[in-house]
Structures are given as C-alpha cells and as structure tokens.
Specification:
Helix content is 81%, strand content 0%. It is mostly helical. The C terminus is likely disordered.
C-alpha cells in the first residue's frame, strides 16, 4: 500500500502528498467552523429568548445578560448598548453596528481556505495528471508500443488520473461546506441584527404592551389583555 502511494506520488510529480496536506487543512477548517457556528448560533438563540423576557428600561437585567454571555459572539451587542445608553437611539445603533463589524472577522475566519481549496485542488489534480501522462508517454520513445511497454503506458495513464480524482474529491468536500458555512454566517449576522433591534427597543422603547411577556407571543396575539399578562 505504501509503495503504491509512493508510486502515485512519483507519477504526479509530488503533487499527491501536497494534495493530502490540503485535504487535512480543509478538514481541520471544517471541524473548527462547525464547532464555532454551533456555539455561536446556540448562544444567539438563547440570548434572543432571554431578551424577550427583559422588561423595558431594565438596565440591571441587561447587565446581567451581558455578564452571563461573557465570551459569546453576541455579548458585545448588549455591552455597546449599555455603554451608550445615555445617547439617542440612532447613536446607540451606530455604536452597536460598530461592535458587530468588529465581530465580522470571527464569522468569516478561515472560510477563505475552503474557497481556495475549491479552486486549487482540481488544478493541482489536473497538473499531477498531466505530469503523470508525460511520464507514461516517455515510455513510447524507449520501448515502442508493444508488449510490456504498452502495458506500462496504460498503467501510467491510469495512475496519473488518480491525481484528478483526488483533486475533485477535495473540491467537492470544500464547496459543500463552503456553501453551508456561508449560510451559517448569514444566519449569524441576521441573528445579531435582530438582537440589536431588541436591545435598542428595550432601552429606548416604551414597551408597555410587552412587559415581561415574550415578544413573539405578544405579536402572535397570544396576550390580549396586558393587565392579565402583568398579573400572571
């Protein structure tokens, strides 16, 4: 097995080992991003739920939320809002937008590796195949096309095509997760925008209709009597 891998590496001009390294890097990025988005989106959903239960103008509860979600991607939204709570809503929104922009590199981190793998892996595979076929056809000039020489030519071509197959495999893996992570990134940004609006509303909105009542329930018409909701 090892000898066969060495032979394939020689046939591809040494590109097969490089493609193996590229595959390992791609898998490492995929695992890291899967863990990151899972944690980020989960904490964002939990923060959305907790914010719905915060009374309007309740700065103490918002500070408790900020402390509770220390280290999360969305924590800076509440922190920026609290730091600028003496400003008007437009100024607060700009400060929160700045905080979100500072988090953008974390959302897009290392995704460029997958984008590069999508393009680079097939090209490396194609180059390896061309090098392998050149080596295979060199045999024609040495021993003609009959007998063992013909068998070596066809075998060399088959081995050379392995490089193309490996490159396509890496590209397929990378493009699938690249599209998935792009969707996860858009969802994370949408989640942060929603949290921004919720925080601003709680610091600048009257909110008399939703005190202590989850906003989704109030908007869905589940709470029709505010007095009853408060007593509950």
């Amino acid at each position: 097995m090892f000898d066969h891998i060495v032979q394939l590496s020689i046939q591809s001009g040494g590109l097969i080992p490089l493609m193996g390294v590229l595959l390992l890097v791609t898998i490492a990025v995929i695992v890291e991003r899967l863990v990151f988005y899972r944690r980020a989106l989960r904490s964002g959903s939990a923060m959305e739920h907790d914010l719905q239960l915060v009374d309007y103008q309740n700065v103490e509860k918002l500070q408790q939320l900020a402390d509770h979600y220390e280290g999360s991607l969305q924590r800076s939204i509440i922190s920026s809002a609290l730091a600028s709570r003496g400003q008007d809503a437009d100024t607060m929104e700009r400060h929160i937008d700045e905080a979100i922009m500072w988090q953008m590199p974390k959302i897009d981190r290392n995704v460029w590796v997958l984008d590069s793998s999508v393009t680079l892996a097939p090209l490396m595979g194609l180059l390896g195949t061309i090098i392998g076929m050149v080596h295979a056809f060199d045999i024609l000039g040495e021993g003609g096309v009959a007998g063992a020489a013909a068998q070596m030519v066809t075998g060399g071509i088959a081995e050379a095509l392995v490089a193309t197959g490996v490159g396509l495999l890496i590209a397929i893996l990378a493009v699938a997760f690249l599209n998935y992570f792009n969707k996860r990134g858009r969802l994370a940004l949408h989640q942060m925008e929603q949290l921004k609006v919720m925080v601003i509303n709680r610091l600048h909105g009257g909110g008399s209709a939703h005190h202590g009542v989850p906003v989704r329930e109030a908007h869905a018409g589940k709470v029709t009597d505010i007095g009853v909701a408060r007593r509950a």
